[in-house]
Amino acid sequence: MSDVRSMPVPDGLEGERADAALSRLFGLSRGRAADIIAAGDVLLDGREVGKSDRLHAGAWLEVTLPPPPAPPAPVAEPVAGLGILYEDDDIVVVNKPTGVAAHPTTGWTGPTVLGGLLGTGRTVATSGAAERQGIVHRLDANTTGAMVVAKSETAYSRLKRAFKERTVKKRYQALVQGHPDPFRGTVDAPIDRHPSGDGRFAVVAGGRPSVTHYDTVEAFRAATLLDVDLETGRTHQIRVHMSAIRHPIAGDLAYGADPTLAARLGLRRQWLHAVRLGFEHPGHGGWVEFESPYPDDLARALDAVAEDG
């Protein structure tokens, strides 16, 4: 079913192109916003607009948003490099490799953790949407490390609550460019979709509250290895916050990393790894904690930066 939205154009969108404005208002890509405009589904004071038309604050905007496309179903097939750190009747803790998404999403055609588990004959909790069965938290496709998936329905509900109440301890390590000052600190800055609508996120006034704590593990000439503790779990949170303090994660070209340094370290993705994951076991209630070793590409990059001094 289509979703009709009506509102005055906010002051902050005065003079903005229609496609850019829709992207910012509704979290759409610029291309999707342009398609909606081309279909005649955007009216300004009752008249259809073109994608390059400029909006005026206070004008009455009517937008008919088409229903989002249905996410694809998981493909049950083994995933190369998907390791198992722990498993019992309630949970399976995986060591997620790079290039693997947590679950199917619109636009993602690569392998997924969910599909990989189903492909080995494992069963997972059926709670939640079909394309996210058993998934209680996510890692970016190119972020590696420890990730828990619920196998039982009880585990699913208890773990979802634990993540919501922030009782799960998630520790990451990130190799960032330069040397953060202070060496130990907190980034408290709201995050929302980047105004460009290109799929990135950014520190945005009025965004969702986001808090990242970091501590220096080791400083090198060109970069610093950080231990990172998330108080909140926003999409791309560590990547956005490190970029916002002008110390982007090495190899993270989407968020401002130096491509020359990335090439020198042999990085084809961001140097970000979910190294530890701890929580109350949803079955027996005791505290459990799991650790994931560095994958080969990150270990090689760390050796290379250390050799630089």
Automatic annotation (TrEMBL):
Underlying gene: rluD
Catalytic residues (UniProt): D140
Catalytic activity entry: a uridine in RNA = a pseudouridine in RNA
Broad enzyme group: isomerase
NCBIfam families: rluA_subfam
Native source species: Actinomadura rubteroloni
The protein's name: Pseudouridine synthase
Superkingdom, taxonomy of origin: Bacteria
GO molecular function: catalytic activity, acting on RNA; pseudouridine synthase activity; RNA binding
Gene3D superfamilies in UniProt: Pseudouridine synthase, RNA-binding S4 domain
Family membership: Belongs to the pseudouridine synthase RluA family.
EC numbers for this chain: 5.4.99.-
Stored InterPro entries: PsdUridine_synth_cat_dom_sf, PsdUridine_synth_RluA-like_CS, PsdUridine_synth_RluC/D, PsdUridine_synth_RsuA/RluA, RluA_PseudoU_synthase, S4_RNA-bd_sf
Keywords from the named record: Isomerase, RNA-binding
Function: Responsible for synthesis of pseudouridine from uracil.
Domain Pseudouridine synthase RsuA/RluA-like span(s) in chain numbering: 90-244
BP GO terms, sorted: enzyme-directed rRNA pseudouridine synthesis
